[in-house]
TrEMBL record:
Residues 1-126 form the AP180 N-terminal homology (ANTH) domain. One of its GO terms (cellular component) is clathrin-coated vesicle. This is Huntingtin interacting protein 1. Pfam families: ANTH (PF07651). GO terms for molecular function: actin filament binding; clathrin adaptor activity; clathrin light chain binding; phosphatidylinositol-3,4-bisphosphate binding; phosphatidylinositol-3,5-bisphosphate binding. It comes from Phyllostomus discolor (pale spear-nosed bat). GO terms for biological process: actin filament organization; clathrin coat assembly; endocytosis.
Length: 144
């Protein structure tokens, strides 16, 4: 369905396409990681349990969170690029319709940022990381 909306270059077509891609990414993430609730609120202990105290699982979770975060920020950027900055659009019906999904984006991003920082600290504190793992982590740092 997102491809169909993506062909519409005017109006809400691109916004719907990006939003549907985000919904698909969310569903895929929660299917792969059923321990994460839909609202992404979990304690540090639950985060440890989600990674099963395995460095490889923590790394995979971190990569998946970065992908999820990228989709969230892509929607955010697309919405702001679609707004007419010459006037106050937050009071118009069309502006409110465009801005409404960003409330959930902000909430999700705050949790994702928090968890990725915690996971990165866990990854950096691992004493037995292999050379390959260190190289992958260094490459991820450079591209960020």
């Amino acid at each position: 369905m997102s491809r169909m909306w993506g062909h519409l270059s005017e109006g809400y077509g691109q916004l719907c396409s990006i939003y549907l891609k985000l919904l698909r990414t969310k569903m895929e993430y929660h299917t792969k990681n059923p321990r994460f609730p839909g609202n992404l609120q979990m304690s540090d202990r639950q985060l440890d349990e989600a990674g099963e105290s395995d460095v490889n699982n923590f790394f995979q979770l971190t990569v998946e969170m970065f992908d999820y975060l990228e989709c969230e920020l892509n929607l955010f950027q697309t919405v702001f690029n679609s707004l007419d900055m010459s006037r106050s659009v937050s009071v118009t019906t069309a502006g409110q319709c465009r801005l409404a999904p960003l409330i959930q984006v902000i909430l999700d991003c705050s949790h994702l940022y928090d968890y990725t920082v915690k996971l990165l600290f866990k990854l950096h504190s691992c004493e037995y990381t292999s050379q390959i793992f260190s190289e992958l982590l260094a490459r991820r740092r450079i591209s960020a």
